[in-house]
Design goal:
By secondary structure, the chain is an alpha/beta fold. It has a seven-stranded mixed β-sheet with strand order 3-2-1-4-6-5-7, with helices on both faces. Strand 5 and strand 6 form a beta hairpin. Helix 1 runs parallel beside helix 2 and helix 1 runs antiparallel to helix 8. The termini are far apart. 47% of the residues are buried.
């Protein structure tokens, strides 16, 4: 168990812009529903970790804000910069201003198969007084970024973020956490998340829209 309280931050863009790489499989309204479902499962898993004392969601989208509040998260208004890293940094600064030099955890919003035990194990391995990352399943992105104590979060999410984070001094954590590492951008990613054991909200949404590997490979627009 981590001895210090951890405050998590998750940034979610406007739902109208979400998951464009699934546009050939899902219509916009269904992509929005999928983002909300995956966010719900991510929030539920994070909320079950004892050392995570608060979760802040940064978003310009009222639908995201409503869901996050219903699951106990706080909402931080997105700064007037349409950039994921600026949004995370702004929320991190606000948390440190309110709570002092607390541990910070920036999580991706689309981790439907993440388990509380994985998050707890990752936090127990993250070094104090340093930044560390969990590289995603593709090996190029970042699923989670941790900054201990008063260390600046300095988020560098985006294409090639794993390399950018390591180049900026972050330590790569090597734990076996398949759910934590598995963010979702493509139909194949979503299929694999189901195999790993996606959370109940994502599974219910996929049943509702009739998603299955056989269907989406044969039909261009499932929903």
């Amino acid at each position: 168990m981590r001895p210090h309280a951890v405050h998590a931050v998750i940034a979610v863009k406007n739902l109208d812009l979400a998951k464009s790489r699934l546009a050939d499989r899902l219509r916009p309204e269904c992509r929005a529903r999928l983002v909300l479902a995956m966010l719900a499962d991510t929030l539920i898993a994070a909320s079950a970790v004892e050392s995570i004392r608060s979760i802040t969601v940064v978003t310009p989208d009222p639908r995201v804000a409503e869901l996050a509040r219903s699951l106990g998260a706080r909402i931080h208004p997105e700064p007037r910069i349409s950039d994921l890293n600026a949004a995370l940094a702004d929320a991190a600064m606000a948390l440190r201003a309110a709570h002092g030099p607390v541990d910070l955890l920036a999580l991706q919003a689309d981790l439907p198969a993440v388990r509380p035990a994985e998050l707890a194990a990752m936090l127990s391995e993250a070094p104090d007084g340093a930044r560390s990352i969990v590289v995603d399943h593709a090996g190029t992105g970042t699923a989670a970024l941790f900054a201990g104590g008063g260390i600046d979060l300095d988020p560098r999410f985006g294409p090639g973020s794993a390399r950018a984070h390591v180049a900026s001094g972050a330590v790569e954590l090597a734990g076996d956490w398949p759910g934590l590492r598995h963010d979702v951008d493509t139909a194949e990613d979503l299929d694999r998340a189901v195999e790993l054991g996606a959370g109940a909200t994502t599974r219910a949404l996929l049943r509702d829209i009739g998603w299955s590997r056989a269907v989406h490979e044969a039909v261009r627009n499932v929903c």
